[in-house]
Amino acid sequence: MSAKNRPLSPHLQVYRWQWTMAYSILHRATGVALSVGALFLVCWLVALAGGAAEFTLVQDFSASIIGKIMLLGWTWSLFYHLANGIRHMVWDSGRWLELKPAELSGHISLASSVVLTLLVWVLAYSS
């Protein structure tokens, strides 16, 4: 095989899929989702400063099905990114770097993010 036909870098098809790979991709995706959520927060604040009509428009969108799904997704993104960030801080201390503890800590991050999201939404709707 000549150097001209060789791939420049390995592709995802070369690697065997692992939980740690999925959690890494999910961590990056939730970071992007949090950035979009921050833009929505800015829109909400601008609408708040703009007056009652603009604020009502943004609030109506937030109360719609699409708005609630987006807010639920942003809430989960926040908790997953936080839990996985704590997981990475533990890794920085030199702990949980072996495959089994790394996989288990990923499962714990995912589970805790779901539980915390549900808890926040139940508390928000119960009050």
From TrEMBL:
What residue intervals traverse the membrane?
31-53, 65-83, 104-124
A Gene Ontology biological process noted in the UniProt record is: tricarboxylic acid cycle
Binding positions for heme? Answer: 81
Q: Which PROSITE patterns match?
A: SDH_CYT_1, SDH_CYT_2
Xref: InterPro entries? SQR/QFR_C/D (IPR034804), Succ_DH_cyt_bsu_CS (IPR018495), Succ_DH_cytb556 (IPR014314), SuccDH_FuR_B_TM-su (IPR000701)
Instruction: Name any cofactors this protein relies on.
Output: heme
Subcellular location(s): the record lists: Membrane
A single GO molecular-function term is: metal ion binding
Q: Which Pfam families match?
A: Sdh_cyt (PF01127)
The protein's matches in CDD domains, at most eight in alphabetical order, are given as:
SQR_TypeC_SdhC
How is the cofactor bound, in the record's words? The heme is bound between the two transmembrane subunits.
- Keyword terms, alphabetized: Heme, Iron, Membrane, Metal-binding, Transmembrane, Transmembrane helix
User: What does this protein's UniProt record list under function?
Assistant: Membrane-anchoring subunit of succinate dehydrogenase (SDH).
Q: Per its UniProt record, what NCBIfam families does this chain match?
A: succ_dehyd_cytB (TIGR02970)
The UniProt entry's sequence similarity note says: Belongs to the cytochrome b560 family.
Its assembly, as annotated, is: Part of an enzyme complex containing four subunits: a flavoprotein, an iron-sulfur protein, plus two membrane-anchoring proteins, SdhC and SdhD. The complex can form homotrimers.
- The protein depicted here goes by the name Succinate dehydrogenase cytochrome b556 subunit
